[in-house]
Design brief:
53% of the residues lie in helices and 17% in strands. The chain is an alpha+beta fold. It is elongated. It starts with a helix and ends with a helix. Keywords: ATP-binding, Cell membrane, Membrane, Nucleotide-binding, Transmembrane, Transmembrane helix.
Length: 421
């Protein structure tokens, strides 16, 4: 029940020595400030790294062929094999948990010969023969025109979608791109769209804009690939993990290409979901470190409050003796000391939270005016749950800080307290 006299007494006790109270409160303020700032910085780093994935479907795997490492059924070790287009259909029919299976072929690339020509301009670019679903696995912003569709695939249209980097290399600034033609390894393709991929902060964002996408069937026909598939991008449905489906995928491919069941080197793969899970694990560890360091700093402030409350109890020995002589129970004395400790802790802690929130707001204000797509840090923040955890820590800390002084206060005998000068 609210007692005005009790709160007047608490305020009077804490303001009797302003300088001492402020120094004591600063320890808690600084501890909770460090805790919130560390958590916000960790969240900002997490946002930046996840932003670097550029919206890529993280429940995906990229799979390619490698020389077999074991002889099997009369076939020698070291032989090479190729995926076929019917492998894609077999995967779709056998493993319904897969959402997208995109066969891919690739031509040229960075460091290669100039494989794309338009007029007098030439360039060396990655050219991919793809299915339309690839845009769901490697999201990109279509800046003009459109992306590939199944009609392009079925009719084997010689059309292409080019990156902004290709556009800048082959076209003048204001030149019309849609409907124009580029020559890829001697074959003409009509440009139907342009795209821009988000930067990934890993140094490859510029190269990501220098790619060309053409229909898989047109690529196979134009460059004599037949039914061969260079590699595949495979994405599992949301309810399933591609990591758990890998063994089933590999078993099917091995059986179709007469590969030893224990040959783990014949199929190369990059499991994006597994790598993404490792990144998430790293951020969980960073959050744990932030809590550990923040709580340790906060603990030093709590120790300071406990020491000051012990001094306050000693200074108020006569007062405690009088109150005990007038009938105050040990619980009333204990409650008074605990309330003072909790009140000082919460006020100083809330000041630390407000200060940290102000700093975070200023950082976000600064980041709003910059392009964070190329950085590893974006939108540092703390959610309401973190604030509630911080408040819980403050309340518990205040109780712990006041417990020892409170116990010391109730052990003082009224007669001894009244004799103290």
């Amino acid at each position: 029940m609210f007692s005005r006299d009790r709160w007047d007494e608490i305020i009077e006790a804490l303001t009797a020595n302003w300088f001492r109270t402020l120094l004591t409160a600063f320890g808690v303020l600084w501890g909770i400030f460090i805790l919130v700032i560390l958590l916000a910085a960790g969240k900002g780093l997490e946002n930046g790294v996840k932003q670097g994935f550029g919206g890529i479907a993280t429940n995906s795997m990229f799979m390619w062929t490698q020389p077999v490492s074991k002889p099997y059924k009369g076939l020698p070790k070291g032989r090479r094999f190729n995926y076929r287009i019917d492998d894609v259909e077999a995967l779709r029919q056998t493993i319904p948990e897969l959402r997208f299976i995109s066969p891919r072929n690739q031509l040229g690339g960075f460091g290669g010969n100039n494989n794309v020509v338009r007029g007098l301009n030439t360039g060396a670019f990655n050219v991919y023969g793809d299915y339309p679903e690839i845009i769901q696995q490697e999201p990109m912003d279509i800046t003009s025109g459109r992306f590939l569709n199944h009609s392009d695939l079925q009719q084997k249209r010689k059309v292409a979608v080019i990156g902004d980097g290709v556009r800048n290399a082959l076209y003048e600034r204001n030149e019309e791109v849609i409907g124009s033609y580029i020559k890829i390894s001697g074959v003409n393709f009509m440009v139907i769209g342009t795209y821009k991929k988000k930067g990934n902060g890993g140094g490859n964002s510029e190269e990501a804009q220098k790619e060309i996408f053409v229909p898989f069937t047109s690529f196979s026909q134009a460059f004599n690939m037949g039914d061969r598939v260079g590699w595949m991008a495979i994405t599992a449905k949301d309810a399933y993990s591609i990591t758990n489906l890998k063994s089933e995928i590999f078993e099917l491919i091995k059986s179709r290409h007469t590969i030893h069941p224990d040959d783990d080197r014949a199929i190369g793969n990059f499991d994006l979901y597994e790598e993404f899970s490792k990144v998430n694990g790293l951020f969980i560890a960073l959050k744990a470190v932030a809590y550990f360091v923040g709580v340790l700093v906060l603990l030093s402030g709590i120790i300071g409050i406990s020491n000051i409350m012990l001094i306050v109890v000693k200074e108020r020995t006569n007062e405690i003796g009088v109150r005990r002589a007038l009938g105050a129970t040990p619980w009333m004395i204990r409650g008074q000391i605990l309330m003072e400790s909790v009140f000082l802790t919460i006020v100083s802690g809330m000041a630390g939270i407000i200060l940290a929130t102000g700093i975070i707001w200023l950082v976000n204000l600064q980041l709003d005016g910059t392009d964070t797509s190329e950085t590893m840090f974006a939108n540092p923040s703390v959610n309401l749950g973190v604030v509630m955890v911080a408040l819980s820590i403050l309340i518990i800390s205040g109780l712990l800080a006041g417990m020892i002084p409170a116990q010391h206060a109730i052990k003082i005998k009224p007669v001894d307290a009244l004799r103290t000068e």
